Amino acid sequence: MTETTNSKRPRLLIVDIARGVAIIAMAIYHLSWDVSFYRFIPVDVGFDPGWVLFARTILSAFMFLVGVGLVLGHGDGVRWPSFWKRWAFVVGGALIITVSTWFTFTESFVYFGVLHAIAATSLLALPFLVTPLWLTGLVAAVIIALPFFLTDPLFNERIFSWLGFWVVPPPTNDLVPLFPWLGVVLLGVLAMRIVRQTAWLGKLAAIQPRNRLAGTLAWMGRWSLVIYLVHQPLLLAIIMPLSMAMGTQEAGREIDFLRSCQSSCEASGTTAALCATYCQCGLEGIERDDLWEQVFTGIVTAEDQATLDRNNRQCSQLIYPDLTAD
């Protein structure tokens, strides 16, 4: 069975609509992450299992649609001028995100996020537009499965983490490694290549909803990359000043610290009252020495650790006066 060759390349409105839905879901997730990060809500969106599943579902849809789009745009032969134009736009957007997050979140800047992954996987997936279908499926399965069986602390380092075999990922606000996400792109390639060989292509092309909602979603899908680039800066431009005015981030991190400290302290057998004194002392030391970023990122220099140890000894002496002070 050979693949359909259609020089007109019928535009599938349903694919544009799917992209539109995905970009709206992405914006909802980023809004939720922002209000969580700036402590407007008590849920930690970055670690809450439900939100993590939501984020992974959105990312899966995006990467699958990357593969679908490659087949729709280049399944009859790569149109290099068009490909390089779009690829350069994605790379440029990825660089903008890296630079902007470097200044905004220095310790957790985005060095291989969604756009970086789209740029890399778009190139790597091109050969699979013409490989046998069984080979495309096999490679996709291997790439998706491999991170579950192969991990090494070496890949915890940023320089290697983009491959995806880490044990613990380095601190970053967005990391979309090649393994397993290249495999998801290849699943999109495989699915659309199969569609092009069957009557499903005509059936999908015949789906042409004309209502306003469908038109809006399709428009958003066609401009999804632009929307992706601009929506987060717009959200932060509103949320950051509001957080500074209301003091939500400072209040939220203090509450988180005291709650975590109290729980750990009581687990060691110390009474709740003594733990409250100890933790309040620890909070005052962190604020005095401006160690919030080090505490929350876990990136601590030898000098920072010495300061933390000294503060811990001083706080311990408050609840156990018989301890020798530094």
Automatic annotation (TrEMBL):
<keyword id="KW-0812">Transmembrane</keyword>
<feature type="transmembrane region" description="Helical">
    <location>
        <begin position="133"/>
        <end position="155"/>
    </location>
</feature>
<feature type="transmembrane region" description="Helical">
    <location>
        <begin position="51"/>
        <end position="72"/>
    </location>
</feature>
<feature type="transmembrane region" description="Helical">
    <location>
        <begin position="84"/>
        <end position="103"/>
    </location>
</feature>
<feature type="domain" description="Heparan-alpha-glucosaminide N-acetyltransferase catalytic">
    <location>
        <begin position="11"/>
        <end position="233"/>
    </location>
</feature>
<protein>
    <submittedName>
        <fullName>DUF1624 domain-containing protein</fullName>
    </submittedName>
</protein>
<keyword id="KW-0472">Membrane</keyword>
<keyword id="KW-1133">Transmembrane helix</keyword>
<dbReference type="InterPro" id="IPR012429">
    <property type="entry name" value="HGSNAT_cat"/>
</dbReference>
<feature type="transmembrane region" description="Helical">
    <location>
        <begin position="12"/>
        <end position="31"/>
    </location>
</feature>
<dbReference type="Pfam" id="PF07786">
    <property type="entry name" value="HGSNAT_cat"/>
</dbReference>
<feature type="transmembrane region" description="Helical">
    <location>
        <begin position="109"/>
        <end position="126"/>
    </location>
</feature>
<feature type="transmembrane region" description="Helical">
    <location>
        <begin position="175"/>
        <end position="195"/>
    </location>
</feature>
<feature type="transmembrane region" description="Helical">
    <location>
        <begin position="216"/>
        <end position="240"/>
    </location>
</feature>
